[in-house]
Amino acid sequence: MFVPRVYGLGDLSQILDERAYTQTSVLMKSAPEQVSTFVVTSAYRKAARSLRDHGFVLLLGDPAVGKSVIALMLAISAADNWRCLAVKPRTSDELVQRWNPHEKGQFFWLDDAFGAVRHEEILTHAWARDLPHVMSAVKNGARVVLTSRNYIYNEARPLLKPYAYPLLREQQVTVDVSDLARAERQQILYNHLTAGDQPADVLSRMKPHLEDAADAEPFRPEAARRLGLQAFTTGLSLNRESITSFMARPRQLLIDVYDQLDVHAHAALALVYATGQDKGLPSPLALDSVQRDIIERAGAAPGATSRAMATLTGTFLTEATALDGQTYWSFHHPTLREGFATWLTTQTHLLPIVLTGMTDRALLSRTDCLPVDSEQRQGTLLRIPPPLYQATAQRISAFRRHRGSSPTDWLEEYERRQSVLSYLSGDGSDDFLRAYLMADSELHTVLLNFGAPARDDLRTRVLARLHRAGLLPEDIRQQAIAHMTDLAVTAPDASWIEDDDWQKQPWHVLLSDKEREGLFEHVRRELVPRLEQRVDSWAAEFNGDPDNDHVEDALFWYSQAFEQRLDDDTAGKFDQACDIYQQVREDPNEAHRDWAPEPHPHRRRTPQNTHPIQEQRSLFDDIDH
Question: Which of 25, 104, 210, 280 would disulfide-bridge 141, Cβ 3.0–4.6 Å?
């Protein structure tokens, strides 16, 4: 209470941010291996130029290609070059909260901005909402680095509306970090081999095949790290075929490595995988009943498991100290966790108890309940077998129905509901959905409360998924159509119009052709005669983002739809209504929407060929010395 009086409000915000700055400093200091093996690649240079000239860079790439390492090095270089104070927020909301307009030298680094292993729509919708603030921070001097896996960003991009934000649209701020020159690949492999623990005689036998290993497609720096460590190469034949296969197809080989570990290592990895904390498993071990059960099912003992933790650190696991002084174990790389999850599905004695040890959020983000023979979605770590459907459904249902003890918990409840709906819409088989309906008798009532625009509401996707599975009662479907009919006129909401937009597919499933015709007639009869009055009302109520205005979208889609139906008179009325609506509504974000960064006044011309010239001798000639 007295701090503002002593320090002033401006100073107070910096005091509150000091914890975030210190936390990122600890994070950077805890990564000496990444710093010691880092190679300055063309992807890094492109990212650094984008950060210098535009203050923003989006690092895209497949898993294990080095996105986080480039972001780490950019943070370190920004601290050196611009005296930037680094902050590593987890969400766009945290970035906005930490942005200090009076502090010009802030560096924000967000890993997995749109989801860690799968696309999380909650995060993407938050980015769409917060992008004007983020762009304002960049314009004011902040520097922002985001990372994302390619397949996650491809799902997120349609929701971000990048046409409204020139900085996201420009090619020079999007860096595909997997685009590595041959010399860069060789240098990365060389650095990891020399930093590893392979004996000289093993390196000598590898040496004739290392250039081919660097040419493997796809090339992943994380695979190069593992090749330099004995823990991952036990039983590996040191010939060209085996080594290149190790680099290009590491997942199956990684499963074989997990098979070769002893039961104490299995127990240790299972404990880390099942941990309920984002930071990892606290060190030293303080076992609860679930963790003891995991150790017992693995056939291990607590003491031996604790020793295995130390043995695995540096290879499979990493140990880091948080700002509060607590040390945590976590997987050294996300792909190691994903590989362990694949291995875990074959361990029937461990899987049930590991699922029990996982947090509800981890269960919803890392697993699916799809048929055994169906293709596994990218980012899914565990496939739950049918015998566990009932228990899983009961747990997810309880998670959805949980209510916070405080009125301020509404955001947490919203995110909880969204994660459950996302799981039901895409990660459950028909049999699982049947089990879930038995566990959650309130689901139908919840699904009928969808809002406008319905295309963005996950409840409509779940309705369509249930209908496709033959699990949606006809009276519930009719109530959903009645609600959509009302929104079509009052919101207005054109989500029910069939077109190629993937977001509108639920209503392609839920509506018959006759019902869709009825909706067109309803809009023509109930909305068109009142358009002028409604437009004034909608414009007066507008207080949001003009680039995410569902009223303007609906008027546009109505105009297009009636034009395609050769009803030019009605189409013209909607077209005119859309123009009038745009004119009379307020536009508070005009300054952000049209902003484009000015070119850097001292930008140097970049040479066309920035790759080092390949020497005649092999880079690996002295790898065994």
Answer: 104
Average pLDDT over residues 586-592: 41
423 pLDDT band, cuts 50/70/90, is very high
Assessment of whether the complete model's pTM goes beyond 0.70: no
- Angle (nearest 5°) at CA 87 between 83 and 89: 160
Q: Dihedral, CA atoms, 241, 243, 249, 250, nearest 10 degrees?
A: 150
Which DSSP symbol is given to 369? B
Query: How many Å apart are CA 296 and CA 453, to the nearest integer?
Result: 51
Q: In the 8-state DSSP scheme, what is residue 428?
A: B
CA-to-CA distance for 550 and 450, rounded, in angstroms? 15
**In this predicted model, what pLDDT tens digit does every residue of 280-298 receive, in sequence order?**
888 888 888 888 988 998 8
pLDDT reported for residue 502: 44
> Order of strands across the sheet with 281-283?
281-283, 327-331, 317-321
How far apart, in Å, are the Cα atoms of 220 and each of 151, 185, 226, 603?
16, 9, 10, 32
Residues 6 or more apart in contact with residue 473 via CB below 8 angstroms? 444
List, in order, residues 6 or more apart from 11 with CB less than 8 Å away: none
Q: How far apart are CA 378 and CA 362, in angstroms?
A: 16
Q: Which residues contact 128 (CB under 8 A, 6 or more apart)?
A: 159, 160, 161, 548
Contact indicator for 130, 109 with CB cutoff of 8 Å = no
pLDDT at 479: 96
One-letter identity of residue 592 = H
Highest mean pLDDT among 26-35, 249-258, 368-377, 495-504: 368-377
Residue whose tokens read 């209908």:
467
H-helix or E-strand containing 175?
Answer: strand 174-176
Mean pLDDT of 585-596: 41
pLDDT at 519 exceeding the cut of 70: yes
- Confirm if 143 and 84 have CB atoms less than 8 A apart: yes
- Cα–Cα distance, 538 to 552 (Å, whole number): 10
